[in-house]
Amino acid sequence: MIKVGIIGATGYAGAEIARILLGHPEAEVVWYGSKSYVGEEFSSIYGNFFKIIDDKCLDDNMEELANEVDVVFTATPQGLCASLINEDILGKVKVIDLSADFRLKDVTEYEKWYKIEHKAPSYIEEAVYGLCEINRDKVASARLVANPGCYTTCSILTAYPLVKEGLIDPDTLIIDALSGVTGAGRGAKVANLYCEVNESVKPYGVANHRHTPEIEEQLGYAAGKKLVLNFTPHLVPMNRGILATEYATLVKKDGKLPTAQDIRAAYEKYYGNEIFIRLLKDGVYPETRFVQGSNFVDIGFKVDERTGRVIMMGAIDNLVKGAAGQAVQNMNIMFGLDETMGLRIVPKCP
């Protein structure tokens, strides 16, 4: 049995890790870390765990935690994991960090976009970007995994095969993404109050959202060159879900534009055997309600022959595949378990 510790267990992503691991046959949470609720019963914060989890919240002492568990999930604000990590800890446990501390390989880019000093730059190169369907071989041997962001998971996976195969010009890529309010975290913010978000949709972080360099870096690896793209997130009045709609110009080969069959073949090449990526039938497009509560990514596309462009669409649950589910998927890979263990969760609809 894998012993698990969660730092940041009372945030939305941390609580989702706890929920998922309750159904995991090979893992057990023994440390619910929460600096804000030390000594309080976990179920008093999330009533859905009443009579299910009896544990009280502990602190975020990573040094002590490393002696008691096999893997630590850090579902914490940017900067905390980097301030706690050291060689002694990594010599004892595997760490899966849900913050952005180790996602970007350029420390100056991290400090530019996140406006904080990186406290552990020596571990950036070692950290594996935990996008399972693309980096699972590297994840398998990692001791430190940078769990991707929610917007980035959806945005990258939706476009990756077409970028990798050279079917689109990645310099023309535009991404519009919509997210439920849980994507903003559990902290109290006026902008996220019910009356501020209900019956309204708004763009934010326009041209400067901090997930932009993460998307550019990872799709840049697929393209084999540095990318610059437009990414615009929107906040929508729902609890969970991300829907990304992406547009790019198709690249002619032998004087002809790729057909819908060519696009589908590229997706099948990379995702045909991926259990958590569902390529939808022609004319069927993703809806967030059909992935809610699950680790699935639903992807659809439409070739626009009139404009010579392709429209790619992807949907995920931001708290599962966009955070906790992917983190558990990474854990399974790191410990040599069936990758789907604990994650065969049927989406809940309605």
Report on this structure.
The protein has 350 residues and is an alpha/beta fold. The chain has 2 domains: 2-126, NAD(P)-binding Rossmann-like Domain (Rossmann fold, 3-Layer(aba) Sandwich), CATH 3.40.50; 151-318, 2-Layer Sandwich (Dihydrodipicolinate Reductase, domain 2), CATH 3.30.360. Helix content is 29%, strand content 19%. The protein has a 7-stranded mixed β-sheet with strand order 8-9-7-10-13-12-11. A hairpin with a 4-residue loop joins strand 12 (297-304) and strand 13 (309-316). The longest helix has 15 residues, at 150-164. The protein is globular.
Put the structure in a nutshell.
By secondary structure, this protein is an alpha/beta fold.
Keywords, separated by commas or semicolons:
350 residues, alpha/beta, Rossmann fold, Dihydrodipicolinate Reductase, domain 2, 7-stranded mixed sheet, 6-stranded parallel sheet, 12 helices, globular
Shape-level CATH architecture of the largest domain: 2-Layer Sandwich
Structural class: alpha/beta
Q: What radius of gyration results from the CA coordinates?
A: 20 Å
| Mean pLDDT rating | 97
> Which homologous superfamily in CATH is the superfamily of the largest domain?
Dihydrodipicolinate Reductase, domain 2
Q: Main β-sheet: number of strands, strand sense, barrel status? A: 7 strands, mixed
Q: Note poorly predicted spans.
A: none
Helix content: 25-40%
Beta-strand percent range: 15-25%
CATH class of the largest domain: Alpha Beta
> How far is the N terminus from the C terminus?
34 Å
Shape by Cα distribution: globular
Spatial sequence of strands, sheet with the most strands: 8-9-7-10-13-12-11
Q: How many beta-strand runs?
A: 13
Number of helices: 12
Output the helix-strand order.
EHEHHEHHEHEHEHEHEHEEHEEEH
CATH topology of the largest domain: Dihydrodipicolinate Reductase, domain 2
Total individual domains: 2
